[in-house]
Amino acid sequence: MEDGAAVAREHGVAQVFDLHGLKAFAADKRVRKMLFKTDQLWSEIACYEPGQSTPMHMHPREEEAIFVLEGTATMSIDGHEITVPAGSIVKFPHNVLHDVRNLGTDRCVIMFVKVNPKILKATGGG
Predict the structure, then answer these.
(1) What is the value of pTM for the model shown?
(2) Residue ranges of domains in the chain
(3) Angle at CA 17, nearest 5°, toward 13 and 20?
C-alpha cells in the first residue's frame, strides 16, 4: 500500500469516506489508499492512469468485491476476460486468479472490500 490510511469523517460509530476527494494518480504506477482495515473487513481505493494495472494474483481465503467507481476496468477472473464499466460491482470467490487493468484512455478508479484474512485464519474459514 502506497499512501497509508484514508481520513474519514466520524458520525457517531460510522465513518464516512469521500472517495472522490481521496483519488490520487501517479504516472509510474497505480495509487492505492487504504480506506479501512478492521478485525473483520478491509477496503482500499485504487486509481489507474491509462495502461496501468494490478498484477495477476489470488486471495487464498478471502472473497472479494470490486466496485468500479470511475472509468472502465478490464479484468481477467479465473481465465474469463470481462469489461466492467463505472457503476458496476464484481464479486468472486476466494482462491481465484484475477487482475485489474485500465486499457482505456480515461482514468479508472476502483474500490474493493474483502474479509480480513486474519479472521478467516482464526476461524478456520475460507
Answers:
(1) 0.87
(2) 9-123
(3) 165
Q: What is the Cα gyration radius of the chain?
A: 15
19-53: pLDDT as tens digits: 989 999 999 999 999 999 988 899 999 999 999 99
What confidence tens digit (pLDDT) does each residue in 86-123 have?
999 999 999 999 999 999 999 999 999 998 877 766 66
Instruction: Please name which of 59, 65, 98, 105 lies closest in space to residue 82, comparing C-alpha atoms.
Output: 98
Q: What distance in Å separates the CA atoms of residue 7 and residue 123, rounded to the nearest whole number? A: 30
Amino acid at 15: Q
Query: According to the CATH classification, is domain 9-123 in 2.60.120.10?
Result: yes
C-alpha cell at 44: 482500499
The torsion angles phi and psi of 2, rounded to 5 degrees, stand at -90, -40
Give the phi and the psi of residue 85 in degrees, each rounded to 5: -80, 165
DSSP run (H or E) holding 109: strand 108-115
Which residue reads 486468479 in cell numbers?
97
